[in-house]
Amino acid sequence: MSSQKAPVIVVGSGLAGLTATYKLLQSKTPVILLEKLDKFGGNSIKASSGINGVLTSSQLAQSIPDTPELFLNDTIKSGKGLGDLVLQQRLVDDSQRAITWLQEEIKCPLNVVNRLGGHSERRTHRSDGIPPGFEIISKLQKAIMALNETNGGGLEVKFDSKLISIDKSSEGKIIGLNYLNMKDNTETYLQTSNLIIATGGFGFSKQLLQKYNPDLVSMPTTNGAQTLGEGQELIESIGGKLINMDQVQVHPTGFIKQDDPENNWKFLAAESLRGIGGILLNEKFERFVNEVGTRDFVSGEVMKQKGKKAYLVLNQDMYGELGFQIEFYMKMNLIKKTTIGEMFGDSKEEVKKLLVEYSSGQADQFGRAHKQHIFKQVADDTVIYVGEITPVVHFTMGGVKINEHGQVYNLEDKIIDGLYAIGEVSGGVHGANRLGGNSLLECVVFGSRAAESVLQGKL
Description:
alpha/beta; FAD/NAD(P)-binding domain; 5-stranded antiparallel β-sheet; 14 helices; Flavocytochrome_c; FAD
C-alpha cells in the first residue's frame, strides 16, 4: 500500500466515484468509499443511451467520419457558449481514452454507436442488448472488487453513509470529514488529506430548485430521491465556489405511466429511442418538432403542446435495434404494442401519410435529416410501439467550479488543497444544456483526472 498517512475518501458510487476508486486502487492507494444508499450506482446505473467518444475503435470500424472538432463544436453549441472551454476540450480530448479503458480494462464492448439529439455524427456508444449504465456500473464494480482482492485489500466501502461536514485546516487544506451512519444514526469522523466528492446533482431537491430555478419546482423528475445537492451545499459551506446553478436540464421525454400518471418521478424515455428513428406526435397526431434537436429545444416544443405531452412512436425495425429496452418499457406499462389502425382510428389515413412523408429519405419540414430507421411499411396492420411522454427535470449543469483535474476553486478562484468534485456535482462542463452521452463521459474523464491528480501529489 501507499505510504500516505490516510486513505483517499471518495463520496458517491456512481460512475465518477467508481472510476476514481478504480484508478486509485490500481496504483495501490487505499480508498474509503462512502455511499448514502445501500448499493452502488447512483443515477449512473440508470443511464440508458450511452457514452460519447470520438476516434474510438468502434467509430473507426464503422467508418464514422467524426472528428474532435465536430464533437467539441456540438458540445459548445449545445451549451450555448456558457460552458468552460478548458473543461469541454478536456472532455473531448480524453474521450477516446475513456472508451478504450471501458472496452479493454472493464470489458464493456461498446460496439454499437448511435446518434443522439444535437450531435452531428454518431458517437454515443453502448453494447448490444444491455442498458449502458447498468453494464458499465456492474462490470466496473466487479473490476474494483477483483482489483481489491488482487491487491490484498485497500478498499473500505461504507454503505448507508451520508457526508454531513467537511473539515479544513487553518491553512485551508482538507483534513477530514464527518459522516452519518443512516442505519444507527451515529456520526463518525475520518481523517484524510484527499477528498473526492461525487455525490451527483440536485434534480430531486425541491428546495434547491426553488432557490435556483423556481419555474421547474412543479415539474416531474427522473432523478433518484438521493439526488439532493448535499455535495454542492457542503462544498459551498467551506468556501467552495458554485457556478451556473440556475442551469437545469429539462429532458423532453419522461414516460407517463398509464396506471400512475400523476407520479412526480418518471422513467426516462431514452434519447436513443428518438435517435434510431422514433417520432413525436401531439394529441392531434401531428408531428411538431425535429425529434433529434437539442434537449432544451425539443422540451420547449413539447411544452407548447396540449397537456405538455406527446406520443413517442416507434416501429418494428426500431424494436429490432432496441428491443431489450422496449421490452422493459412494455413490462413497466410505459409502452404498448399496437397497430397504426388501432392506435390512430379515424386519423389513421392522415398518420399514414405523415409516416410516408417522414420516410421519404430527405430532410423534412422540421429540419430532421438523420433517420437511422424509417417507416418502410405503412398500413392499418403495421405494428408500432407507442408511449406517452412529458418533459422532466433530468440533469443539473451547474455545480462546483473545478479545473480540468477536478480540483475545487474557492471564492477567490484559488484551489482548495485536497478537495475534488467530479461528475454532476461539478459545474462548467455542459454550460446551459448537456448533450446526451456526455454525462457518463464526464464521469470517466474527470474521475480519472482526479485520481491521477491525487496520485501525482503522493508519488
